[in-house]
Design brief:
It contains 9 helices and 57 strands. By secondary structure, the chain is mostly beta strands.
Length: 961
C-alpha cells in the first residue's frame, strides 16, 4: 500500500477513541494550501516554501547540529471548519508533534537531535484533520523531506599581525601580536579553539614541539583571535591553532609563522628620564610598554618633552592660578594640572592651541587615540601643517580621515614621526605607551623653540567652568519703591547632551535689564550664554553621579534685592562617557579614606573632613572632579552644599545656618569622585550646634555715658556706642548686668531661642541695702525694652507678700543638708555654710559664701541666688551644727502654681490650708525632717511617714497638678 494511503489508516486506528461515533472521509489531495517555514536555532536561517495541492516538498539544510524546527502551517480550505488538528509523523509512523488549534495558521515545533537524526534525507508526514461537519472527519497530508548533513568545521586561514607596528619599523623589543583564525563553519556545541607556540624540549630541541595551549577568544561565529606579547625578536617563529571537540581531541589544526623584529627606544627613555616628573612614571618598565595610556599621561609627557627641548617653554606668568581652568573635570591638585593648563594656552601652528577647550571637559583618564596624539605633537612642536596629502594617499585607510586629520597626518609623515602600521594609519585606534615613545624618539632631532607671545594671556575673570557661574555686581542701586525680584521657575530645554536653562523671574520694570544671576550645582558644570547669565548651558559630569543634579539659582535685580530658586534634574537625562574605569578598572585606584575630626558641627564654623589614601593612576595624582555634601536631620530635612572645597589632605566647608538643624543630630553624606569613579561616604550622629548669640542695647546714664562693658555670667563684654554682642559657648541660663545702677536681665538660650536681643535699663537705684523690697508683680514692660515703671524696685518673681520686718532671730542647723524657710541676709551667711540651693520657676539657683565655689557657679552659667525669702524653700549645706541668723516676716497667702514648687513658711502651717492656684488640693507635699522624707498625700501611701502640719522656718515641696 502506498504511503499516502497508509497514513490516514494509521491515524484512524490511533484516534478511534478520539473520534468515536463519527464517520470519516479520506482526501488524499486537499484543496487547501500549506505553507511550511522551517527555522533552525543553530544558524538562525529561515527556509520557506509553499506546498501546493499536488506537490511534495524537499527542504535541505547545510548544517543542522542541535536546534529546533518550526513549521508554520497556513490552511485555506473549505474543510477547515471546526477544531482542526495538525500531526507530524516520522518515517516510522511515530507521532513527534501534535497541536489542535482554532486559527487558520499555527506552528508545529520539534527538536532535531544529531544522535536521532543521522546524515542523509529523512521523510516526515504532515497530517491535517478537520471536522468539516457534524458527521464527517476529513484528513489530508503532505510529505516533507529534510536532508541533514553534519559538516565538521575546518581552519581555512590563520594570520599573525603586530599591534606595535613592527612591520613598518614602529615595533619594539617585546612586540604585541594578534593571532587570528578563520573557520569554514561555526563551532558545534562543546568545540573550542586553542593556540600554542613553538617550545623547547628538555634536550634543547624545538622541532615539532609546541607549549601550553591557550584558549582563543571568539570574534565572530567563524573567527577567533588571541593576543600575546613576544618578548624576544626572531624570524620564522611558529605557532599552531587547533580545533578540539568536547572530548579534547584535535579534529583540525594549522601551523603558521611570524617574525618579531626589534627596535630599541632607550635613547628617548634616557632623554625623558631627565625630567624629575617623567622619571617617576616607569616608562621603561616592560609591563608598561603595551598599555594604552590616558590623555592626562599624554599631556604631561608632551609637556615635559617640550620643556626638555626648550627650557623657556612655560606660561609667562608663573602663578598657574592666574590662568583660567577651561575644564570642569581637572583638579588643581592633580599631577597633570600645570601640563594641561599650559598646553590649553599654548598656540602652535595656525594659531591653534595644543588642547582645545571648546567642549568644556578634558576627560583626562580617557584613552588617547593615535590621531589625538599626532595632533598634540604637531601643534606642540609648532610644525607648519602640510596641505599636500599625496604622501598619505596610498595608506589603506586614507579615506577614513577627516580633512583636519589629513593635514596632521600628512605633516607627521613628512617629518618622519609616523610610518604607519601594515600600510594603515589607524587614526582612531588607542595609542600604546611605546608607540608614543617611538614617535617622541623620532622627534628628538626636530628643533623646537617657543616664545611668550604664543601663550594666551591670563584670564582673571570670574565664573570658571566647574564652579558657580556668575558674580553679583557690586554697583547696586537702591530704590525702596522697586518691587523685589521673584524667581518663579527655571525653564529647561535639552541641547545635545546638555540643557539650556533659563531663569524665569518677575521683575519691576525699573529693574529689567539690570538683573544678574549666579548658578551652581552639586555636580556638572555651566557655560555662559547671555552676559547676565539669565540663560546658561548646563552639562553633566563626565561620570554619572549617584545622585540627581540639584541646581541652585541666585538672582539679583540690581536694586539690592535677591531671590533664590532650586530645581532638580534627573541624572538619567544625560549620556556619560565611558572612561578607563569602565573598560579596565585595575588601571585606576580611587581608594580614598574619609574621616571626621569631630562629631560636633558648629554653625558658621569651618568643618573639616580628613582625606587620605590613593588618588593615583600610573603614579599620577588624578585629583577630584567635584565634591558635594548633603546634610539631613532626624526629621528628613536636607540641605546640599555645592562646590565644596578640597586640598591634598582635607575636604572642608563652612557650616550653613539652617534652623531645622538647631540642636539636632544630622547625617552627613559626602559625594565625591574623580572623572572616572564616583563614591559616597556617610557619617551619622553629628551634633549640630547653632551659634548662641546674645546681643543688646544698654541705656546711657543720666549724663549720657555708657558703661565700658556688661558682665554676662562673669565674662566682660565690651559696649560700643551702647551696643554689645556676645557669642555664648552653649545654651543655658545667662545673667546680663552692668553695675548697681542698671537693671539685671536673666535669659535662657535654647534651640528655639538661640539669639535673643535684650535691653538693659538705667535705673539709678541705690543698692546699699542688702535685700531689695519685694514689690507686687513683675517689672512693667513696654514693647521690647524692659523698662521698669516709676517707683518700682527690682523684683524676684516671688509670690505676693505683705510688709517686712527687720527683727532678727535664729534657727538651728544640723550638719549636712537642711531644708529651711527664712528671710536671710546673704552678707550674714557664715563661711561654715558651703552650699545654698533654691528651685524657682522650673530652674535651679545657687549661692556660696565661699568665693572659689561662687566663682565656679558663675563660670558654669548657673543661675545665681540674689536674695533668700521666707516664702521660698531653701536647701542649706552646713559643715557643722550651728545657729543661723534670720529676719522675721509675715506671710498671708499660700497659693501655689501648677507643677513643682520649693516653698517655705515662717510660721506653723496646717497643710490642709495649702491650696493650688486653681483651687485644688496639692497631689503631694514633701518635707525633709531629721534626714528623712515625710509625705502628705490624699492617696494610699505606706512607704513614707505622713504629717499634717509644717513647722515655722521649714521648707517643703509641693506638687500641684
Amino acid at each position: 500500500m502506498k504511503l499516502n494511503r497508509l497514513i490516514p489508516l494509521i491515524l484512524i486506528l490511533c484516534y478511534t477513541t478520539l473520534f468515536a461515533g463519527y464517520s470519516y472521509n479520506i482526501y488524499p489531495q486537499s484543496s487547501g494550501i500549506i505553507e511550511v517555514k522551517i527555522i533552525t536555532r543553530s544558524n538562525n536561517s529561515i527556509t520557506s516554501k509553499t506546498i501546493n495541492e499536488d506537490n511534495s516538498i524537499k527542504l535541505s539544510f547545510g548544517s543542522i547540529i542541535n536546534g529546533n524546527i518550526s513549521l508554520k502551517v497556513n490552511v485555506n480550505s473549505k474543510y477547515a471548519l471546526q477544531h482542526p488538528t495538525l500531526l507530524l509523523l516520522d518515517s516510522n509512523g511515530h507521532i513527534i508533534a501534535y497541536k489542535q488549534y482554532s486559527d487558520k495558521s499555527t506552528y508545529l515545533s520539534w527538536t532535531i537531535d544529531k544522535s536521532y537524526l543521522s546524515n542523509g534525507t529523512h521523510n516526515y508526514t504532515l497530517v491535517y484533520a478537520t471536522n468539516n461537519n457534524k458527521y464527517n472527519l476529513a484528513f489530508y497530508f503532505k510529505t516533507i523531506q529534510i536532508t541533514k548533513t553534519f559538516i565538521k568545521p575546518v581552519i581555512t586561514q590563520i594570520r599573525a599581525a603586530s599591534n606595535s607596528n613592527q612591520n613598518s619599523n614602529e615595533g619594539f623589543v617585546g612586540s604585541r601580536f594578534t593571532f587570528v583564525s578563520t573557520l569554514s563553519e561555526p563551532l558545534p556545541s562543546g568545540y573550542k579553539m586553542y593556540i600554542s607556540f613553538e617550545g623547547v624540549t628538555n634536550n634543547g630541541s624545538n622541532s615539532g614541539y609546541y607549549g601550553t595551549p591557550y584558549p582563543m577568544i571568539k570574534q565572530s561565529d567563524k573567527a577567533y583571535y588571541y593576543e600575546k606579547v613576544i618578548q624576544k625578536a626572531g624570524n620564522n617563529r611558529q605557532y599552531k591553532i587547533m580545533i578540539k571537540n568536547s572530548n579534547g581531541q584535535i579534529i583540525n589544526s594549522k601551523i603558521g609563522s611570524y617574525a618579531a623584529k626589534s627596535k630599541t627606544i632607550k635613547p628617548v627613555i634616557d632623554y625623558l628620564d631627565k625630567s624629575s616628573v617623567l622619571n617617576k612614571l616607569d616608562l621603561g618598565v616592560p609591563s608598561n610598554k603595551y598599555t594604552h595610556f590616558s590623555r592626562a599621561e599624554a599631556s604631561i609627557i608632551l609637556y615635559e618633552f617640550l620643556k626638555l627641548k626648550d627650557p623657556n617653554f612655560a606660561l609667562p606668568y608663573g602663578n598657574i592660578g592666574f590662568y583660567k581652568n577651561p575644564f570642569a573635570d581637572i583638579d588643581p591638585n592633580s599631577a597633570y594640572y600645570r601640563a594641561v593648563i599650559t598646553l590649553a594656552n599654548y598656540k602652535g601652528s595656525d594659531n591653534i592651541t595644543v588642547l582645545t577647550d571648546k567642549y568644556g571637559v578634558f576627560n583626562p583618564l580617557e584613552n588617547i587615540t593615535r590621531f589625538q596624539f599626532v595632533k598634540m605633537i604637531v601643534e606642540g612642536l609648532n610644525l607648519k601643517k602640510s596641505k599636500d596629502f599625496s604622501n598619505i594617499r596610498n595608506f589603506d585607510d586614507y579615506n577614513k580621515l577627516a580633512n583636519d586629520a589629513k593635514a596632521y597626518y600628512s605633516t607627521a609623515v613628512k617629518y618622519g614621526l609616523i610610518k604607519g602600521d601594515n600600510n594603515k594609519l589607524l587614526p582612531y585606534n588607542k595609542l600604546t605607551m611605546f608607540q608614543a615613545l617611538t614617535i617622541l624618539g623620532r622627534a628628538l632631532d626636530i628643533s623646537f623653540t617657543s616664545s611668550k607671545d604664543q601663550f594666551n594671556m591670563p584670564d582673571l575673570t570670574t565664573g570658571e567652568i566647574g564652579n558657580p557661574l556668575g558674580n553679583i555686581p557690586e554697583n547696586q542701586d537702591y530704590d525702596p519703591t522697586v518691587t523685589p525680584i521673584k524667581i518663579t521657575n527655571i525653564a529647561s530645554q535639552k541641547d545635545g547632551n546638555c540643557s539650556k536653562l533659563t531663569a524665569v523671574a518677575t521683575l519691576d520694570p525699573k529693574a529689567k535689564g539690570k538683573e544678574y544671576y549666579v548658578w551652581s550645582a552639586n555636580f556638572g558644570y555651566f557655560k555662559k550664554i547671555t552676559p547676565n547669565n539669565k540663560e546658561v548651558l548646563f552639562c553633566p559630569s563626565t561620570k554619572e553621579p549617584n545622585v540627581n543634579y540639584k541646581i541652585h539659582l541666585l538672582g539679583n535685580d540690581g536694586y539690592m534685592n535677591f531671590a533664590t530658586f532650586n530645581k532638580n534634574i534627573n541624572k538619567s537625562n544625560y549620556e556619560y562617557v565611558k572612561n578607563i574605569s569602565n573598560t579596565n578598572p585595575s588601571e585606576v585606584k580611587l581608594n580614598l579614606s574619609l574621616s571626621i575630626k569631630t562629631h560636633l558641627m558648629q554653625e558658621n564654623h569651618l568643618f573639616v573632613i580628613s582625606k587620605s589614601g590613593s588618588l593615583y593612576e600610573h603614579n599620577l595624582n588624578i585629583g577630584l572632579e567635584k565634591v558635594a555634601v548633603t546634610l539631613q536631620n532626624e526629621d528628613g530635612k536636607t540641605y546640599t552644599i555645592n562646590n565644596v572645597k578640597w586640598n591634598n589632605h582635607s575636604i572642608y566647608f563652612i557650616v550653613p545656618s539652617v534652623k531645622d538643624f538647631y540642636g539636632k543630630f544630622v547625617t552627613l553624606t559626602v559625594d565625591y569622585g574623580t572623572n572616572d569613579t564616583y563614591k559616597a561616604k556617610t557619617f551619622n550622629q553629628i551634633m549640630y550646634k547653632e551659634n548662641f548669640i546674645i546681643s543688646g542695647t544698654i541705656q546711657p546714664d543720666k549724663i549720657g555715658n555708657y558703661p565700658k562693658y556688661v558682665t554676662i555670667n562673669s565674662k566682660q563684654v565690651a559696649v560700643t556706642n551702647g551696643k554689645f554682642l556676645y557669642f555664648a559657648p552653649d545654651g543655658g541660663n545667662y545673667k546680663i548686668s552692668a553695675d548697681k545702677n542698671y537693671q539685671t536681665v536673666n535669659i535662657t538660650l535654647t534651640d528655639q531661642n538661640p539669639r535673643p536681643y535684650v535691653y538693659i535699663n538705667y535705673a539709678g537705684l541705690d543698692y546699699a541695702n542688702n535685700i531689695p523690697n519685694i514689690t507686687t508683680g513683675s517689672p512693667q514692660t513696654t514693647g521690647s525694652s524692659n523698662k521698669i515703671s516709676s517707683g518700682s524696685n527690682i523684683t524676684t518673681g516671688s509670690p505676693q507678700t505683705t510688709g517686712s520686718s527687720n527683727k532678727s532671730k535664729e534657727i538651728a542647723l544640723k550638719k549636712g543638708w537642711n531644708l529651711i524657710s527664712a528671710n536671710i541676709n546673704l552678707n550674714n551667711i557664715p563661711k561654715s555654710i558651703k552650699y545654698i540651693w533654691q528651685y524657682k520657676q522650673g530652674q535651679w539657683f545657687a549661692y556660696s559664701p565661699l568665693e572659689k565655689i561662687q566663682d565656679s557657679i558663675n563660670a558654669s552659667g548657673m543661675n545665681a541666688i540674689t536674695s533668700i525669702n521666707a516664702d521660698e524653700g531653701t536647701w542649706v549645706y552646713s559643715t557643722k551644727r550651728q545657729n543661723l541668723q534670720i529676719r522675721t516676716s509675715q506671710l498671708t497667702t499660700y497659693n501655689y502654681s501648677i507643677g513643682w514648687t520649693l516653698a517655705g513658711t515662717n510660721r506653723d502651717l496646717d497643710v490642709n490650708k495649702i491650696i493650688c492656684e486653681d483651687g485644688s488640693q496639692p497631689k503631694s507635699i514633701w518635707e525633709f525632717k531629721d534626714n528623712k522624707w515625710l509625705l502628705h498625700t490624699t492617696s494610699n501611701n505606706k512607704t513614707y511617714s505622713s504629717f499634717d502640719s509644717i513647722s515655722a522656718n521649714n521648707g517643703f515641696w509641693i506638687n500641684c497638678k
